Amino acid sequence: MESQVRGGTRWKRFAVVMVPSVAATAAIGVALAQGALAASFSVSGQSFKVTADKLVGTGFSQYGALDTGYTLDGKKTAHAVAVSGFKSASITGMCQSVVTPNIPILGSVSLVLKAGGGGTPVQAENLYIDVEELEADATFENIDIGVAAKDASKGPGMKGGGEQANPFGFAQQADKATLTDVKQTAWATTAGTFKLSGLKMSLSSGVKECY
């Protein structure tokens, strides 16, 4: 990414000062690429977009829940999501983007993470994705539809902690799920381990998203 000069200031360098979380994200990203950390991605008051060429997950379960958080001006929010859980997942050609709007002087700034290219997929264990919208071609093996969320035994179980979900609510599960040409809007992603092979991170002005 080329540095642009505005009023004598290199905007890319200035943006890192204005958005200190980006530096932390970079450090965490390196650790994740080395498989050194458990992963948790959430953006207060914002959804983010994720695409993948292919996701192959074993031990799949899905149920409804509420994600709570705060907007950029401190107001509490709640969003209905479908929590997709995988005991393990392999993801090829992953892209994740988030746009931070209304930064002084800069306006909108986009952060894009890409991984899992070059023939080495992203690997995740105990992966949960809190999805608001999903488009994909999907194939499920040995799927059970209509089980109670608390009784879904093929997946990694309900997230627990501060999760707001009805344990007696509708859920579905499968031994294996294969999704191709994935496009989704999510509010949070968590994983026991998340190894991002070939991680590339870019920061740019304006709105630039994975789709």
**N-to-C SSE series?**
EEHHEEEEEEEEEE
Helix content estimate: under 10%
Distance between the termini: 19 Å
Oligomer: single chain
Biggest β-sheet description: 10 strands, antiparallel
Mean residue pLDDT = 82
The amount of beta strand, in percent, is over 45%
Q: Which structural class do you get from the secondary structure elements?
A: mainly beta
Radius of gyration: 18 Å
Number of strands: 12
Annotation field: number of helices: 2
Ranges where pLDDT stays below 50 over 5 or more residues in a row are: 1-28
> Based on CA inertia axes, which overall geometry fits?
globular
Account of the protein in words:
The structure is a single chain. With 211 residues, the chain is mostly beta strands. Helices cover 10% and strands 58% of the residues. It is built from 2 helices and 12 strands. The strands form 2 sheets. Strands 3, 4, 5, 6, 7, 8, 9, 10, 11 and 12 form a 10-stranded antiparallel β-sheet that branches. A hairpin with a 2-residue loop joins strand 1 and strand 2. The longest helix has 13 residues, at 21-33. The chain is globular and about 50 Å long. The two termini are 19 Å apart.
